[in-house]
């Protein structure tokens, strides 16, 4: 019977201060919505990094003057290199034709060339696996040592910058998420503290007649947990709405090939809701600590 009494008392307090609790829940919703946005960015950046690592393309440029019989051993050596999945020969004429096609209307600029300046090359597909980008570098360094290879290019500068941005975004998401949780905790604590001060005379009377701390505090803890839960549910609903209506159908998806944006996994959604409830309970605990001091 007592749990129902606590829950009813908590709902009565919320109804009695609708504006106050409404503002608190709205603010918590905004905070958890921002946290969800950072979580989405973190998840999709990590997924994109993984997708990019699955099939890394390298261009292995060959030294000039190599004969056809010399190309076979080079290709075999490349294919035997650790992490290499395939190696396809691209002649200098094929490379020039690809360049011409990629230039579209500006392809006429290539007509004035007296000689083909492009080298023969092998287009290599590698899978770094658990080695990550460090494994890609090791594979490139091994191929570079093969006789007849002039240069290995796999967008090193771009990949290093992308990795750095991914690490910075991960660190920023964690730091900002922590600050947002602290803000949500403070808002919940302040809201419950105001309710406590409004009912301080009633609380004093309950203490005088022998009511236990658990009996007095239970409904307030439930209020904080309800605030957190409603804020978390509203934030999750808004985030899902924005994601599935706007992000999932964005043209940017076509620019990323087969990569598909991922929503927050269900286990992390549940964890987020539990966290929001926990923040509500912790905020109530802080408000009681301050109320007791006063």
From TrEMBL:
Keyword Transmembrane helix included in the entry's annotation: yes
UniProt cross-references to InterPro entries, sorted A to Z: ABC3_permease_C, FtsX, FtsX_ECD
Pfam families: FtsX, FtsX_ECD
A biological process term (GO) from this entry: cell division
All copies of domain FtsX extracellular, residue ranges: 56-152
GO cellular component: cell division site; plasma membrane
Keywords for this protein: Cell cycle, Cell division, Cell membrane, Membrane, Transmembrane, Transmembrane helix
Transmembrane domains' residue ranges: 20-43, 171-192, 225-247, 268-288
Domain of life: Bacteria
Lipid bilayer topology: Multi-pass membrane protein
Gene3D superfamilies, per database record: 3.30.70.3040
Location within or outside the cell: Cell membrane
Signal peptide region: none
ABC3 transporter permease C-terminal domain: residues covered: 175-289
Family membership noted in the UniProt record: Belongs to the ABC-4 integral membrane protein family. FtsX subfamily.
Protein name per its UniProtKB record: Cell division protein FtsX
Organism name: Desulfatibacillum alkenivorans DSM 16219
Lineage: Bacteria, Pseudomonadati, Thermodesulfobacteriota, Desulfobacteria, Desulfobacterales
């Amino acid at each position: 019977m007592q749990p129902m009494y606590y829950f009813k008392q908590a709902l009565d307090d919320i109804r009695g201060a609708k504006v106050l609790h409404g503002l608190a829940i709205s603010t918590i919703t905004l905070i958890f919505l921002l946290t969800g946005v950072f979580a989405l960015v973190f998840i999709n950046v990590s997924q994109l990094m993984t997708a990019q690592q699955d099939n890394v393309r390298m261009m292995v440029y060959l030294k000039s003057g190599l004969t056809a019989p010399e190309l076979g051993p080079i290709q075999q050596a490349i294919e035997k290199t650790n992490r290499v999945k395939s190696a396809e020969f691209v002649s200098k004429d094929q490379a020039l034709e690809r360049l011409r096609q990629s230039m579209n209307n500006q392809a006429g600029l290539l007509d004035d060339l007296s000689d083909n300046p492009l080298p023969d090359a092998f287009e290599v597909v590698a899978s770094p696996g658990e080695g990550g980008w460090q494994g890609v570098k090791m594979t490139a360094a091994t191929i570079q040592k093969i006789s007849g290879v002039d240069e290995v290019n796999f967008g090193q500068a771009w990949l290093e910058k992308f990795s750095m941005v991914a690490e910075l975004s991960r660190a920023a998401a964690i730091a900002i998420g922590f600050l947002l949780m602290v803000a949500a905790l403070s808002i919940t604590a302040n809201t419950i503290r105001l309710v406590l001060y409004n009912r301080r005379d009633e609380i004093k009377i309950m203490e005088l007649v022998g009511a236990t701390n658990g009996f007095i505090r239970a409904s307030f803890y439930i209020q904080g947990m309800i605030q957190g839960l409603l804020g978390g549910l509203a934030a999750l609903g808004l985030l899902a709405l924005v994601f599935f209506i706007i992000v999932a159908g964005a043209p940017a998806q076509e620019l990323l090939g087969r990569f598909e944006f991922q929503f927050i996994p269900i286990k992390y959604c549940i964890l987020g809701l539990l966290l929001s409830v926990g923040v509500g309970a912790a905020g109530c605990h802080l408000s009681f600590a301050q109320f007791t001091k006063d």
